[in-house]
């Protein structure tokens, strides 16, 4: 988070809009699963995890808008894995990247408040710029995290329409008032973002691999769109899927970039190529990150 002691923190939505406009609208996932470590020639242990994560952060943190580390791949190594995640979050933010921790937390009462303390409260070793949340214990159960994000200038991305086929069982089910459950979630996010201005801090997760959404995406907040690259979605699919909401889309790529490592040059080329593909379809200033000191131009 930003700001001086006693001053109000700058809202996440404002910081995200600035990062997307200056660095390009790309979120790079950090997903160090066993098969990817093997592709890099690393062992599936804490040393391999640390080498992989440090290489990604050091290669890209000065040029991508957002990193999205998947917490589960660090948690599987216990406390030593979490220590790697803590350092990655701190190092990425110090280099100017925003960090969205993909934890998909969702619970009630004091437990949800504890998750908010962990991921959204300054001073926590895992404090990030934003966190993913699951609303399926009821949107109101997320209140401690929503309040913490508002208080500290953080953001949340709430699961709305995910790309996994099983998600439709819940997300496309009909609520008591006749709306799809996903629409209920999106409408509640719109309420949280009311009056935010340029971009709200309360976002939704909408998979880029969906054939269609069938809902109103006018939430006023960012739309995290995972699934580009290895999962089958293409940049060219985004205008059809998101329509008028396209300026608020934050596309996310993981394996499509990570498989270009362990070379730092390979990772950087992958980010540049992904950003150039997005520049062809996204409105507004889309920048392709260059080498430090290299001039980049708006399209």
Tell me briefly what this model is.
InterPro entries: Aldolase_TIM, OMPdecase_AS, OMPdecase_type-2, OMPdeCOase_dom, RibuloseP-bd_barrel. It catalyses: orotidine 5'-phosphate + H(+) = UMP + CO2. The protein is α/β, with parallel strands linked by helices.
Query: The CATH topology, please?
Result: TIM Barrel
Beta-strand portion reads: 5-15%
pLDDT average, as an integer?
92
- Widest sheet: strand ordering: 1-2-3-4-5-6-7-8
- The counted number of beta strands is 8
Radius of gyration: 18 Å
What is the CATH homologous superfamily assignment? Aldolase class I
Shape estimate: globular
SS-based structural class?
alpha/beta
Sheet with the most strands? Answer: 8 strands, parallel, barrel
Per CATH, the class reads Alpha Beta
Number of helices: 12
Series of H and E elements: HEHHEHHEHEHEHHEEHEHH
- Low-pLDDT segments, ≥5 res: 2-7, 291-299
Distance between the termini: 30 Å
Number of domain modules: 1
Helical fraction equals 25-40%
Give the helix/strand layout.
Layout: H1 12-23, E1 27-30, H2 34-39, H3 46-60, E2 66-69, H4 71-75, H5 78-94, E3 98-105, H6 109-120, E4 130-133, H7 143-152, E5 155-161, H8 168-171, H9 181-193, E6 202-206, E7 223-228, H10 238-242, E8 249-253, H11 255-258, H12 264-279
Parallel strand pairs: 1-2, 1-8, 2-3, 3-4, 4-5, 5-6, 6-7, 7-8
Helix pairs in contact: 3-5, 3-12, 6-7
Question: What would you note in describing this structure?
Answer:
The chain is of the alpha/beta class and 299 residues long. The protein has one domain (12-279): TIM Barrel, CATH 3.20.20. It has 12 helices and 8 strands. It has helices spanning 12-23, 34-39, 46-60, 71-75, 78-94, 109-120, 143-152, 168-171, 181-193, 238-242, 255-258, 264-279, and strands spanning 27-30, 66-69, 98-105, 130-133, 155-161, 202-206, 223-228, 249-253. It has an 8-stranded parallel barrel with strand order 1-2-3-4-5-6-7-8, surrounded by 6 helices. The radius of gyration is 18 Å and the shape is globular.
